[in-house]
Amino acid sequence: MSLPSSDGSRLDPRLSERLGELVDLTHVEQMLAWDQQVMMPAGGAPARAEALATISRLHHQRLVAPELGALLDDAAATEPLIARAARRDHDVARRVPAELTAAMSLAGSQGYATWLQAREDNDFATFEPALRRNIELARRYAECFPEAAHPYDPLLDRYEAGTTAAQVTTLFERLRAALVPLLSQIALQPARQTFAGDFPIAAQREVGLEIAQSMGFDAGAWRLDDAVHPFAAAPGRADIRVTSRFDEHSLSGLFALMHEVGHGLYEHGVDPALERTTLGSGVSLGVHESQSRLWENLVGRSREFWTHWLPRMRERFPLTLRDVDLDAFVRAINIVRPTLIRVEADEVTYSLHVILRYELELALVEGSLATADLPAAWAAKMKQFLGVDVPDDLNGVLQDVHWSEGIIGYFPTYAIGNVLAAQLWRAAEGDIPGLGEAIARGELGALRTWLREKVHRHGRLLSPPELIEQATGGPLDPAAMLEYLGAKYGALYGISGS
Amino acid sequence: MSLPSSDGSRLDPRLSERLGELVDLTHVEQMLAWDQQVMMPAGGAPARAEALATISRLHHQRLVAPELGALLDDAAATEPLIARAARRDHDVARRVPAELTAAMSLAGSQGYATWLQAREDNDFATFEPALRRNIELARRYAECFPEAAHPYDPLLDRYEAGTTAAQVTTLFERLRAALVPLLSQIALQPARQTFAGDFPIAAQREVGLEIAQSMGFDAGAWRLDDAVHPFAAAPGRADIRVTSRFDEHSLSGLFALMHEVGHGLYEHGVDPALERTTLGSGVSLGVHESQSRLWENLVGRSREFWTHWLPRMRERFPLTLRDVDLDAFVRAINIVRPTLIRVEADEVTYSLHVILRYELELALVEGSLATADLPAAWAAKMKQFLGVDVPDDLNGVLQDVHWSEGIIGYFPTYAIGNVLAAQLWRAAEGDIPGLGEAIARGELGALRTWLREKVHRHGRLLSPPELIEQATGGPLDPAAMLEYLGAKYGALYGISGS
């Protein structure tokens, strides 16, 4: 499959102006949301909720303008790819009343503030009314698409265009069917020891910044800050904001940072010619997550990567790492163990956390699960999938920010990202001679260039299935990921034939 | 004089919604500008300029909407004060063609870039064409208000509504007639020594935060950050962002911080009922500056204030302050010396810097001074007012950013603020028994409460002249300031009868 390339240079200036305005409003939304999570004093929440609702309403008004539709009709001949993607946004937005869009935005901001409070109280009851409101609004959103086979489909479509709940259910069945036995085999092996000692946060931040720089972070176009829930934002193509949460008892903040830099590289790597066309960002959350997961896991948890970085880590953390050799280090950062917190989960259990959330939000949206019953349902599934007991809401249903902001239909994209990351990794290994050796020398440029060429530069010009096809030579397929996990953890845990 | 109070509760909901939207866009502009100066990586500049231009255009479009005018007509009977202020914004915006507004915005951006280049070259000639363009556009702006007695009046009106060039000229003649002789008398005294030693920045920041907290800063609604040019922003009434620039060789950053907290207290102290009416912020730049100057100078450079704070400073800066007693400290922070740079000027010379700029921009707008002749005119006035020789453009006409961005008519508000600060201080001393003693105990709450009652809570409900009349019992009058400066510096420099 081959599609014509496109850079917006043939667009009618009136269309360019309208698309540019949409881009600006998106950048403003990114800015306000980033500030809300990283900088804003708590007292700013009400005014910020109002400001976000207004920007979202203005964005919506402009996206649904009939004049935009007419200009996009005219552009279909000269810039078909741009017109196609922009028209899709236009058509979807026209289905949703402006009043509902604004209500969702407002409820999301308020829900986030309520979630923070509920986390302080460690009490889901504080948060429940806000969640109920978000679910109710999500259902109203889904009702705007009566042709959908399932009310979850239009919600998922916001994050992973062209994928349905039925496809996700099938994909997740294949994953679960393979991951649960792999986890069982690992569980039969002796438990692995993590590090005996701490990692002072200031030193983690320093080495984290060095690693980020080797990936492509540069201070002229990037920032690194702390956030309760690490995320990346892009208020501009050359204004990339990554965050992490460092913890002196583990290296989780370093991996979270690599993850977020992976997201940032995608936004930063889009063809600048697409910058003001509304196509100048990542095409879907699943593709986005493939980038973050590839850097976090396929690179960041590999033996090759730490061949270069472990000596540098030893300089920073001599007390903890003095007697830890490369094999022991790689084993320690790849411990598989069912735990309570998704963002701290290992590569094997991670997708099970996602599947749990998918099943619960599917039930919430269907109405077969009441929000008040969510903590119990959460605990039951944690026991069933991972065999662990949930001690409290903070370690259970209150751990993720998404639902607080009305982000429903998002979780599956994390697992889609894992699957695609392994496919891309396999393709990169085929295309880049000596990739592993380069990484072992600390050289990440060839991989970044390959990802930019195959994924980043296209922005939203190709649909997710088109992009996956072009980059990997086939459709989304869990085989590469299951093979990778089987081989890696088979070796690490001495399991044969997994 | 007494005016009915007003809180927006009787407004038509359609008007409330339109005004609330304008408030949100203003908050967004505050947010984007704050981030640009405090957080944004350099690469973000192009996208930020686009985003700011779009928000500014949307704000303008909504402000001039005829529907807003009609709703304000209807509101004149039920909420006369709110309707009056909002109508004024609407009417002024409608008088200026969108084409001119856009041209001024573009010329301002280009002028700023040219000014930066001219500063690098230390050559006014680089900047002169951009300044000429800004002056020409300012004149075209003034022509939109043909009823004005002087073309400077509509320019000044943007920053200090209801004040005219004729009034400023009269005020400044009285100031100059008193300040130049006072400065001459001080110049006859032996030069005063500043501190022998440094003030480490981390400790300045700590004590600065403590001082700010005693003024009313609280972490739930405020932030303190570093900025090259200190400023305050308010993306929400309970989201106050102050900045400072600490310098280890002086205490200038502490005074800048008190100055910015003064601005922040004004925004934070507006009646919450006005929050979504477009009247929920400071009424003019002169009144705003009265708040910052009052805290910076009338409080922050007083003997009473340091009676409480000097012992705390000694703990932080033992090497520098061990042998500095209260009298010596107060002398050192109140040194009067004619210098080249406005932002470093003391209380006596500051207004002379402002008067110089006012006279020059008045002549530029009138056309009696050509932009090419500006450096010579600047040097002549510096010699005449302050007795100093201007060595180059960087230390002269290129020092301030304002003109580069087309901000013409702004400078007088600095001196108006100084004048009003002294009037408010005199009124506060009359109203608050034991004010000086309270400050000497570190208690600033009574002063803050008085300012909130007399100034802050009104927002833009009263016009600047109405507010000054209500708060001080009379119109703007330099007598209080001249008396204050004469008494303070007469005592500090041992000058009798000044």
Identify the CATH class of the largest domain in chain A.
Mainly Alpha
Give the assembly state of these chains: homodimer
Shape of chain A: globular
Largest interface: A-B, 38 and 38 residues
Total strands of chain A: the figure is: 3
Low-confidence stretches of chain A: none
Instruction: Provide the CATH architecture of the largest domain in chain A.
Output: Orthogonal Bundle
| Sheet of most strands of chain A | 3 strands, mixed
- Report the order of strands and helices of chain A: HHHHHHHHHEEEHHHHHHHHHHHH
Q: Could you tell me the radius of gyration of chain A in angstroms?
A: 22 Å
Describe the structure.
Chain A has about 500 residues and is mainly alpha-helical. The first copy, chain A, has 2 domains: about 140 residues; about 325 residues, Neurolysin, domain 3, CATH 1.10.1370.30. In chain A, about 65% of the residues lie in helices and about 5% in strands. The first copy, chain A, contains 21 helices and 3 strands. Chain A has a 3-stranded mixed sheet. Chain A is globular.
